[in-house]
Design brief:
The chain has about 240 residues and is of the alpha/beta class. The protein is built from nine helices and twelve strands. The termini are far apart.
């Protein structure tokens, strides 16, 4: 694993050593720094330490943090492009994967030729040589400063929520963090783990605190409805 934090870097999250070894060799031949994680917890630690542009993730692994939650954290917290793999192709699984909006998706078992083509497509798409020199500037230019949903506007610069672009909705810090999360991923299921990581950060979230937080937001947001997805988390009603 390279420690150079100033060039294009890829994170591989999987237990299959044959595929990960193949990817490492293929990507290094294209002058890409590669980091390998065999657990989601390890992947999140690597993402915190390095500036990762692309993560290739097997979302079927078991662990303390689930694959879906880990993918969401990598996307919204670290702005990483995602390439997903899964053995599940039922309607529910495909719906969840679609909501994650990966750059590419492959079903397992994976053929080496398939993953070779997929990685080449992504490398071409991201224009590696340009990113190596300019990715910091590109990310600043693409930075989103506000999100508008229904009659509400979230200002990511002011960290405030407005109704009809004029009236400020008074929110606590945790309420704002949760609203920001809902607006960044509208109509998608936000897992309990994702809420814990994003809103509570290093502090431990308890069930009653989350219920009270959701209840408070439901009172303050008259034109948006937050619904409970039993056993999974919360989402905004379409």
């Amino acid at each position: 694993m390279s420690s150079n934090n100033n060039s294009f870097q890829c994170l591989i999250v999987m237990e299959n050593s044959d595929i990960s070894s193949y990817l490492v060799n293929r990507l290094k031949n294209k002058h890409i720094n590669v980091h390998i994680a065999t657990t989601y917890t390890e992947a999140l630690k690597i993402a915190k330490k390095y500036i990762i542009q692309l993560a290739i993730i097997d979302i079927d692994m078991y662990g303390e943090v689930c694959g879906i939650a880990s993918t969401q954290i990598l996307q919204y917290r670290y702005q990483i492009k995602i390439f997903l793999m899964s053995q599940y192709t039922d309607d529910e699984a495909i719906n969840i994967i679609s909501n994650l909006s990966p750059e590419y998706f492959l079903t397992k078992p994976i053929k080496i030729t398939d993953i070779a083509i997929a990685t080449d497509i992504l490398i071409s798409k991201f224009n590696i040589e340009k990113l190596e020199n300019n990715y910091a500037n590109i990310r600043i230019k693409k930075e989103v400063t506000q999100i508008i949903l229904e009659r509400y506007r979230v200002s990511l610069i002011e960290n405030k929520l407005y109704l009809d672009d004029y009236f400020e909705v008074n929110l606590t810090k945790k309420e704002y963090r949760l609203i920001e999360l809902f607006f960044k991923y509208p109509y998608q299921i936000i897992s309990y783990q994702t809420i814990d990581d994003y809103v509570w950060k290093d502090r431990e979230m308890n069930k009653n605190s989350l219920i009270n937080l959701i209840g408070s937001l439901r009172v303050k947001l008259a034109y948006i409805r937050i619904i409970t997805v039993n056993g999974s988390g919360y989402c905004l009603e379409e």
